[in-house]
Amino acid sequence: MSEKKVTIDPNKLMVVGIVCGLVGVYLGVIRSEVAGLISGVLAVPVVIWGADAVRRIASYGLGTGVPSIGNLSSGMGVLAALVGLAYQPILGVVLAALAGVIYGVFVAKFKILEIPRLPRYTTELAMAACLIIMCLTSSVIGYYNPMPESGFIAPAENFENIFQALFATGFIAAIFWMTSVSILHPFNAGLGVGERQGRTLQIGIVTGGMALTLAGIARVGYLVMFSPETSPMAFPLGYATIAAGAIVWIVGIVVLVRTASREAAAALWTGIPPKTKK
Amino acid sequence: MMLGIETIILTLLMIGIGGVLICTGVFFMPVGGAPAAMSTATGIATGCEMMATGAGITGLLMSAALYGQPSYIIALNAGISSAIMMCVTMFVANLVVVFGKGVPPALATVDRDPVTKEPVKPYVTPGTVGHGVPTASFVSGFIGAFLGGIGGALTFIPIFRVAFYESLTPSASINPMEILGPLGVRVGVEHVPLFVLAGIGALAMYFVNANIAAYSIRGVIEGWWDPKFKRLPKTALTCFVASLVFGTLVVLLLNSDSFIQVLHMIGGGS
Predict the structure, then answer these.
(1) Residue of B nearest to A83 (CA)
(2) CB-CB contact of A213 with A181 (8 Å)
(3) Which positions 23-62 of B are in contact with A (Cβ < 8 Å)?
(4) Min CA distance, B116 vs chain A (Å)?
């Protein structure tokens, strides 16, 4: 089976995804809560990259449905992301890639899933999920400060915040599932005979917006529950994260509906609700 | 501040065995997928992975509820609770299929039911590969959920116990027997995040292993008599390797300075 022609080169998407994700996590060096908002926004391109990776692997037909791939990637990603946040984010990404390669090589070697270039796909999925979780996490805790005090390892206050914001509140479960859904849903909703890369990735924008909104809600929830010592800008920026997410979400939906109705055979009015005369 | 080598080996071994058990459990479950929802295939009407996750989460809930008991009691109870959950699911699915749709449960790959020795082939509607959950599939599903629950508990216990003892002892030297034995220390509200951490870690491991098994059986399996069951050894080996890889990530997290520092902050409060 040959690769279908695509509008956007997957390699370009990968580079954009990795760069956006890493910039999003490492933006915390400016030590301002604006960084949290921006790293949340920068998670959206990573979601689009992840959705494209799911699209490529799932178009071979797995026999278990598309959602399994999303859950697999967020399962791989969350462990690597936690390690990355405890040591240094770049280490987490490298470990995610390494674990993805080993996973893919073994699954391909024992002929469990016979699709071409499987190690590459599992690597991309693990890295994408890892980066999304790290970006959303730094958005929830305000900002992630990666500058080490000495040596290589990021300061421990980060993990203290993460422990309080994600584990004590339980928001990690929401972030985990949202990551999973945001990268599995685009292809799961778009698959079929007339599937097209551009339209699938537009659904990626929608799910990315949803993930960002959720991160904003988790941010506000964390601030209300624990009222940590933060700058007075914390609450407005939390609401700004929700607003940014909602904007991305709505823009994505509008673009998607326009594309879908343009490419559909016909778009007809169902009659409900009835149009009132005059 | 490092974990002892015995603790690391025990943690990895428990996670690895847990992965193999999860994989074996998935192979035993009567997975029907979408065809089973239309009664055109034997099994429960959902994907492998969701079913395994359901059994796993039930096991994890039980493990979290019995955190203070010795490991074998936690593991057995987790298995039993998963098995009960799966049995209720299969029973209700059968009620719907038999009394709602009017279809007799039947197997397509064998002539006689491997458990009751009743002839089952004649009841298969032409053009389908069985319906409902026949007795043998029910027994197979029970075994599968039991193994899956034990696997989930074996992943949960080491993560939680190691993190918990790290929060108590400043030297982070953990006697491996403490991971297996009963928990002699009071667990307070401040330790709730550790349950969340162990739960998320175990859930992630569950997804990784259940997916390998799911790809190996490609959607539909009836039970231990199914031809696809022969793929189990290779798949179990893959799951063991994958569990070790991701178990290493868990050990790296449990061994990191910032994590241990945060744990001391929690443990120091009490």
Answers:
(1) B253
(2) no
(3) 33, 47-50, 53
(4) 30
CA atoms within a 13 Å half-sphere pointing along the CA-CB vector of A273: 2
CB B131 within 8 A of CB B125: yes
- Tokens 């982070």 belong to residue: B172
Contact A11, A53 (CB under 8 A): no
Q: Is the pLDDT of residue B184 over 50?
A: yes
Domain count, chain B: 1
Question: Which pLDDT tens digit goes with each residue over B20-51?
Answer: 999 999 899 888 888 888 888 888 888 888 88
Averaged confidence pLDDT in chain B: 87
Tens-place pLDDT, residues A30-42: 888 888 899 999 9
Instruction: Give the Cα separation of A212 and A135 in Å (integer).
Output: 10
Query: Of the candidates A113, A155, A176, which has its C-beta nearest B215's C-beta?
Result: A113
Tell me which H or E stretch contains A244: helix A234-263
| Cα–Cα distance for residue pair A132/A25, rounded to 1 Å | 9
Tell me: the pLDDT tens digits for B144-179? Answer: 999 999 999 999 999 998 888 888 876 656 777 878
Q: Which residues of A touch B231 (CB under 8 A)?
A: 112
Q: CA A149 → CA A22, A146, A156, B39, distances in Å?
A: 20, 9, 10, 62
The alpha carbon of B257 is separated from its chain's Cα centroid by a whole number of angstroms, namely 30
CA pair distance A146, A25, nearest whole angstrom: 8
Q: What is the mean pLDDT of chain A?
A: 89
CA distance B79 to chain A (A): 22
CB A173: neighbour CB atoms within 10 A?
15
Question: Residue A71 and residue B207: Cβ atoms within 8 Å?
Answer: yes
What is the rounded average pLDDT of the residues B226-246?
A: 90
Nearest alpha-carbon partner for A128 in A51, A56, A71, A65: A51
Q: Do B196 and A159 touch (CB under 8 A)?
A: no
Euclidean distance between CA atoms A90 and A92, whole angstroms: 5
Do B188 and B16 meet the contact criterion of CB atoms below 8 Å apart?
A: no
Phi and psi based region of residue B267 (left: phi greater than 0; alpha: psi -120 to 50; beta: remaining): alpha
Compute φ and ψ for B69, nearest 5 degrees.
-80, 165
B228 closest CA partner among B217, B244, B243: B217
CA distance B90 to B92: 6
Q: In a 3-state reduction of DSSP, which class is residue B44?
A: strand
- Given pLDDT bands bounded at 50, 70 and 90, which one contains residue A1? very low
Asked if pLDDT for residue A74 goes beyond 50, the answer is yes
C-beta of residue A139 within 8 angstroms of C-beta of residue A40: yes
Give the one of B200, B206, B266 whose C-beta lies nearest to A172's C-beta.
Answer: B200
Chain A residues close to B208, C-beta within 8 Å: 72, 75-76, 103
Say if CB B48 and CB B214 are below 8 A apart: yes
| A173 compared with B32, residue with greater pLDDT | A173
CA–CA dist B240, B225 (Å, integer): 23
